[in-house]
Design a protein that fits this description.
The complex is a heterodimer of chains A (177) and B (120).
Chain A lengths: L1 H25 L18 E4 L5 E3 H4 L5 E7 L4 H13 L5 E8 L3 H11 L5 E5 L3 H5 L7 E6 L4 E7 L4 H13 L2
Parallel strand pairs in A: 3-4, 4-5
Antiparallel strand pairs in A: 1-2, 1-5, 3-6, 6-7
Chain B lengths: L1 H21 L3 H7 L18 H15 L4 H12 L14 H24 L1
Helix pairs in contact in B: 2-3
The chains are: A alpha/beta (177), B mainly alpha (120).
């Protein structure tokens, strides 16, 4: 009897662990947080890539109804891939695309823009990466959609944009006011 | 002998210089040890040399310079990156088992021992 109980408990333990691990297989490894506060209640200073003047985040997201903040770097390969999609978004009237150049060599950054085109209305540099952390970013590339009037982050994409995400972005911009 | 002393002194000074130059301020170390580096699995921000972790350490230093205390810094990072970033999770409905399970197991073990002893 005692032997039976032992056997049953071992077998059931194995089965339970098996299913827990099996369930874990389907989960993605990349952790993406639930945003506790999507409100932008901070302001940071940053310098423009093409001039020595400084600006603030609030000034950057002042124009138009929506802003896209795209964090990129010339050394980042996926940024190259998503660049054409950003150029595609440039045609939207309600939208203002801001680039944050993340931990980059400025000469390389300018080359990158010259080679692939400039989707951004303004580009600021973030040599230490601190401004990106303030925005809750993980690295490059990363894209945030911001509602300018309420200063809230409507959507955040970690990693490069693709056609699906682009369509979703356009949908949100179309539906929100 | 004099040369030996000179060489030793020079080495001593160089090593001392490196230590004082390379290390982060103690406070930054202390806070970054409690933070999970989100893009490098299984490392703390303190241990990691990734771009994310390096920026995070600068940010922590900036916040300390602004006069923020530990709790304010943790809260700020939690609001940006969620509860997951701290190694010391708060008790919520998702984590209560994590906190209570060791206690339950401990009590269970104690009961087992007491029963065994009293049977004898």
């Amino acid at each position: 009897m005692v032997k039976n109980i032992k056997l049953i408990s071992v077998v059931s333990l194995v089965i339970v662990s098996f299913f827990i691990l099996l369930k874990g297989l389907n989960k993605t490894n990349n952790y993406s947080p639930d945003l506790n506060s999507s409100k932008i209640d901070f302001n940071f200073k940053a310098r423009f890539l093409y001039s020595n003047e400084e600006t603030t985040l609030y000034e950057l997201i002042n124009d138009k109804d929506f802003s896209i903040i795209n964090i990129w770097a010339s050394w980042c390969l996926p940024c190259r891939d998503e660049h054409s999609l950003l150029l595609n978004l440039k045609s939207l009237d309600k939208l203002n695309i801001i680039g944050i150049n993340y931990k980059d060599n400025e000469i390389n950054a300018k080359k990158f823009i010259k080679e692939l085109g400039n989707p951004y209305s303004k580009i600021v540099v973030d040599p230490s990466g601190v401004n990106s952390i303030e925005l809750g970013a993980y690295g490059v590339p990363e894209t945030l959609l911001i509602h300018n009037k309420t200063k809230t982050i409507l959507k955040k994409y970690i990693g490069p944009l693709d056609d699906e995400k682009l369509a979703e972005l356009k949908m949100i911009i179309k539906n929100e006011n | 002998m004099k040369i030996k002393i000179l060489v030793f002194t020079v080495f001593y000074l160089i090593s001392f210089y490196n230590i004082s130059y390379g290390a982060n301020p103690e406070k930054v170390d202390q806070i970054s040890k409690n933070l999970r580096c989100l893009i490098c699995q299984g490392q703390s921000v303190y241990d990691s040399q990734s771009d994310f972790a390096l920026s995070m350490k600068i940010l922590i230093q900036n916040k300390i310079d602004e006069g923020k205390n530990d709790k304010q810094i943790y809260d700020f990072l939690k609001s940006k990156y969620g509860e997951w970033i701290v190694y010391d999770p708060e008790i919520t409905k998702n984590t209560f088992l994590l906190w209570l399970l060791p206690l339950i197991l401990f009590v269970f073990g104690a009961i087992l021992i007491i029963r065994k002893v009293s049977i004898k």
